[in-house]
Amino acid sequence: MMKKISVLFWLLLSMLAFAGCGSSRFAENNSTNLPSEEIDDNSIVVGFSQLGAESDWRSANTDSMKEAFSAKNGYSLVFKDGQQKQSNQITAVRTFIQQDVDYIVLAPVTESGWDSVLEEAKEAGIPVILVDRMVAVSDKSLYNCWVGSDFELEGKKVCEWLNQYAIAHGIAAKDLHIVDLQGTLGSTAQIGRSRGLNEAAIKHGWDIMALAEADFTQARGREVMASMLRTYSNINVVYCENDNEAIGAIMALESAGYTVGSDILNGEVMVLSFDGINEEALGYAKEGKIACIGECNPMHGARVAGMIEQIEKGESINKFNYVEERIFSALPDVTEITVDGTTYSITVPE
Ligand code: AHR
Q1: What share of the chain in percent tops pLDDT 90?
Q2: pLDDT tens digits, residue range 4-31?
Q3: Ligand 1 pocket, residue 242 CB under 6 Å
Q4: Averaged pLDDT, 113-128
Q5: Cα separation of 329 and 157, whole Å?
Q6: pTM
């Protein structure tokens, strides 16, 4: 079902509003508005609410979606950047409903608070596909399907790598002094990765000295790390919930005179991280400055397009679709880990 007429109508309205409100309006909304000549009569119109642009992972995810939903692939994409605010994302979804798009794709910033707007989408008969993070709604029929990472498994894998590293180096649990630079609180990525660490700490008797939100950004990673270093002098493991935080944390550690590395027993501070898409972070992983990275795969565009194709054909579709992910480390000591009965080889970053 193509809805280009209503989209064209909306575009005309937008253009009129643009003319009347000054040139900053679209920039403020941070939306990508479709030129009418790009609306193909046969295209599928997708409204994509991206949560923001906080990390390199997010930029890669946005690029992947834009590539998949390109005109050459038969799509017209209405893209909106939520700038880390759920209220912006809710407004975007409501706009998509008004535009009567064919599909709504939502990458939600946090899990709670989506019931009402998703009910509105359901009432409008527009399929909703969730990507990356999840929503916590009691009625799962409010969305068609989800694709993304098993964030808790990512956390468990990195923690099991740390456990195996500690065993290989004779480091006792009481000698690990860990801090957690958390991602955006209430996001699935934060909830899963923090839980993975918390469960490992309980299991192995590790000391989590402090935890604080660093919002998945380099700037906050640096600030939060610097603040923790002013309070605690014996931190020797920094669990960063993404690579951008890790880069910021390394800057703060080195500015404060610490050596970042894996020789914990001789005063070095070990950095652990997630994503594996940022070139700088992968470079640090190659040299051992980031000891281990739990991969988080952002390339969801083609996966979501595949789901839309299935829906278009009337095929049934899995509700939850987890992507496979690796674990990176250049340190030679741990070559494989086993989590929940599955063994994962460690990939050496190239
Ligand atoms: O939800 C995925 C996480 O969000 C990625 O790990 C992080 O880099 C991004 O900001």
Answers
A1: 88
A2: 444 444 444 444 433 333 322 222 233 4
A3: yes
A4: 98
A5: 12
A6: 0.90
Amino acid at 328: F
Residue 103's nearest CA partner among 142, 83, 77, 68 is: 77
Place of tokens 């068609």: 144
- Among all chains, which residue has been given the structure tokens 């643009």? 18
Crossing angle for the helix pair 86-99 and 115-123, to the nearest 10 degrees: 10
296 CA from centroid of ligand 1 (Å): 8
CA–CA gap between residue 327 and residue 320 (Å, rounded): 22
d(CA 274, CA 132): 14
What confidence tier does 42 reach under pLDDT thresholds 50, 70, 90? confident
Can you tell me the mean pLDDT for 290-307? 98
Report d(CA 308, CA 44) in Å as an integer: 9
Whether 62 is in the pocket of ligand 1, judged by its Cβ within 6 Å, is: no
What pLDDT digit, counting tens, does each position of 237-296 carry? 999 999 999 999 999 999 999 999 999 999 999 999 999 999 999 999 999 999 999 999
- Establish whether residue 215 lines the binding site of ligand 1, counting it when its CB lies within 6 angstroms of any ligand atom: no
Q: What is the rounded distance in angstroms from the CA atom of residue 148 to the CA atom of residue 158?
A: 18
Q: For a pocket test of ligand 1, which of 56, 57, 106, 153 has the largest count of ligand atoms closer than 8 A to its C-beta? A: 57
Which residues neighbour 217 within 8 Å (Cβ) at sequence distance 6 or greater? 54, 55, 244, 245, 248
55: Cβ below 6 Å to ligand 1? Answer: yes
Is the CB of 189 inside a 6 Å radius of any atom of ligand 1? yes
